[in-house]
């Protein structure tokens, strides 16, 4: 799909304010509402826009402990990864699961929980017990320096 400056502006604005009205969006990009809405629908239908969500404050919800967990599997045959991934997807505490290379681990998980006791339960009674998990190594986040949800939609598109 080719993106022009209007598409890039729409994507940039929506990443900052997903609740903006079509009228206001059209005004901000200097386009009339009908063509703006057509462009928006095309971006949605093509799968560039995956959905719209509310961003929540973890600490306000009592989720003050964030950890990164590197998980190593005991078998690297491709058919051993899907069962692990299915188990991980069912755990709401896991915000991200990235299959990685170069770190001596197969996956990195980003986890948020209320406290250390909950973390210990998640790690020892759920994650470490998934078939195929050989080892887990935790790193605790002291503070988040950059926490973006917006993707760069510059000229490279």
Automatic annotation (TrEMBL):
GO cellular component, one term: cytosol
Alphabetical GO biological process terms: regulation of DNA-templated transcription; response to amino acid
Record field: transmembrane: none
A molecular function GO annotation: sequence-specific DNA binding
Domain of life where this protein originates: Bacteria
Domain HTH asnC-type: 3-64
InterPro entries with a match to the protein in the record: ArsR-like_HTH (IPR011991), AsnC-type_HTH_dom (IPR000485), Dimeric_a/b-barrel (IPR011008), Tscrpt_reg_AsnC-like (IPR019888), Tscrpt_reg_AsnC/Lrp_C (IPR019887), Tscrpt_reg_HTH_AsnC-type_CS (IPR019885), WH-like_DNA-bd_sf (IPR036388), WH_DNA-bd_sf (IPR036390)
Keyword annotations from UniProtKB, A to Z: DNA-binding, Transcription, Transcription regulation
Keyword GTP-binding in record: no
Name of the featured protein: Lrp/AsnC family transcriptional regulator
């Amino acid at each position: 799909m080719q993106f022009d400056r209007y598409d890039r502006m729409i994507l940039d604005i929506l990443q900052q304010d997903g609740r903006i009205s079509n009228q206001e969006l059209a005004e901000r990009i200097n386009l009339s509402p009908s063509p703006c809405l057509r462009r928006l629908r095309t971006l949605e239908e093509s799968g560039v826009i995956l959905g719209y969500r509310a961003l929540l404050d973890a600490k306000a919800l009592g989720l003050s402990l964030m950890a990164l967990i590197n998980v190593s599997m005991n078998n690297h045959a491709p058919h051993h990864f899907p069962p692990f991934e299915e188990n991980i997807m069912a755990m709401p505490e896991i915000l991200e699961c990235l299959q990685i290379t170069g770190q001596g681990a197969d996956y990195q998980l980003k986890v948020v929980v209320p406290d250390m006791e909950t973390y210990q339960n998640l790690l020892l009674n759920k994650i470490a017990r998934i078939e195929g998990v050989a080892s887990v190594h935790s790193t605790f986040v002291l503070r988040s320096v950059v926490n973006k949800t917006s993707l760069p939609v510059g000229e490279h598109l």
